[in-house]
Structure to design on (232 residues):
């Protein structure tokens, strides 16, 4: 049978259109799945070493997972953040999943671990560690853009004591000092949680005005003068 060129073009066009429709249907399906993933918030309580998956429409806790938080010298990034990207098998020591947070002073995220005995302890460099089976399950629930709140008391501390801060230190406690200095009319720089040069000069000015000993350290004397108490 002789097939006309026109007939062949029509059949090819139908085939291409059918393929495009299948791809579009798959994209819509994935889009709906991603939309469903956005219906959650995450609360990490460092004092309890627990991560709570919360349905943001009903405010109900749907999952609770044990976690490991930061050491006293390398605290977790307390505050409200968002997941900015997700990855599988991100790197050695990070378990089977990685979810990065938009913390301005360093690279922090929620990830698995090859050290399961550290879970329920303050053992990390600041990241939130989970059992690999748990992070894989959580990974399926949430997407980029999910809000993550990391909590640990009114000033976001795991222990009833502030760190002795030195220039170059980073963290939520540095951020709280910046905010408190700003409220008192001293620090006008960026609230980034980094004890940099601008902050250092403002700390010295604050100490001079309040007749405190001349060092660059932010210690108990400074915290008391600022009116900051670890737990209230």
């Amino acid at each position: 049978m002789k097939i006309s060129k026109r007939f062949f073009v029509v059949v090819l066009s139908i085939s291409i259109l059918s393929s495009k429709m299948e791809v579009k249907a798959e994209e819509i399906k994935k889009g709906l799945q991603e939309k469903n993933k956005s219906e959650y918030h995450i609360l990490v309580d460092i004092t309890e070493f627990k991560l709570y998956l919360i349905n943001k429409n009903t405010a109900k806790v749907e999952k609770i997972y044990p976690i490991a938080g930061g050491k006293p010298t390398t605290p977790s990034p307390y505050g409200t953040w968002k997941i900015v990207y997700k990855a599988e098998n991100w790197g050695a020591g990070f378990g089977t999943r990685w979810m990065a947070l938009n913390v301005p002073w360093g690279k922090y995220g929620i990830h698995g671990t090859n050290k399961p005995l550290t879970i329920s302890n303050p053992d990390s460099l600041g990241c939130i560690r989970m059992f690999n089976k748990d992070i894989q399950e959580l990974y399926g629930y949430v997407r980029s853009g999910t809000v993550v709140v990391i909590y640990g008391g009114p000033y976001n501390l795991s222990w009833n004591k502030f760190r002795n801060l030195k220039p170059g230190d980073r963290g939520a406690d540095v951020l709280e000092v910046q905010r408190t200095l700003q409220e008192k009319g001293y620090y006008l720089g960026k609230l980034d949680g980094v004890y940099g040069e601008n902050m250092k000069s403002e700390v010295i000015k604050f100490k001079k005005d309040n007749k405190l000993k001349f060092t660059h350290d932010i210690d108990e004397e400074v915290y008391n003068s600022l009116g900051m108490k670890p737990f209230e």
Observations:
- The helical segments are 5-37, 132-141, 172-183, 197-209, 220-226.
